[in-house]
Amino acid sequence: MFLFCLILIPIIFIFIKISLNILVKKYGKFSYEELSIAGFSYDAQKDLFYSTKNAWQKNFGYTHLYDVAAPIFRMIIDTEPIKFFYDNKNWLITFWKGQYGIVTGAEIGIYYTRQKKVNKKVVYKPINQEDMLNMSFSLYKNNQKIIHVSAKHWWLTAFKLGMFSKPKELDMDINLTFKNKEMLEAFLTAFKKIGYKSKDYKIIDNTFCFLYKKPKTRKVWTRNWLSDAIINYLNRRNVNLYNEFLADAISTNDTQEKKLKLNKLIKKINRKVK
Question: What secondary structure does DSSP assign to 253-266, as a single string?
Fold first, then answer.
């Protein structure tokens, strides 16, 4: 069955390539804007996908089960959850980085619950707009910056399509500005409890600065050397297939192409005027 799937994958992609070529010839290229997953937008200048503030995923909050299920959906990601109590709420701030199918990316999520006792079964709610924090991160692959994003958000994400990476190849340079000193101190207490030291981070006013390399939190049980090896192989294969068969059939941005055509037209007109 496993070998059959490996044989079937390229056949499927070749079929998709042929179908896309027919559609492209008839209707023109597809754009990332048209193919964007609901809840995400595409930044043509940075060539990355990012989550919107009103993404549909907001309706589902967060629970530990999502991380457990991640490898089943081809996501090999390092997860670092920090749980702390502040303002009569149990808060959860989580950092993620790794491979999400055929994209490399990272996330910062901020959630809360009013439940007094928390465990792995708790479903956290995303924070409200008034509780959103200013945050940013730069993602480095083998010391080369591939992503930078910043926003006041509840779920800051960025993903590079058609790139393969192992989590250990990625470093995430995080800046997170808290509402006040009290909230910052509550977070730092919890951050140190999972194994970090004062030398591992910097504080500038109410901003927490941290280079996330290897998580202190134990991996979920669905991640082990065998599952990582199999899923990494499939993800790398699919990234190669995407770049070989699909990437050329998709336009990065229709608006960007129109601007380029318009600029060329203006240059032609200017030449004729001269």
Answer: -HHHHHHHHHHHHH
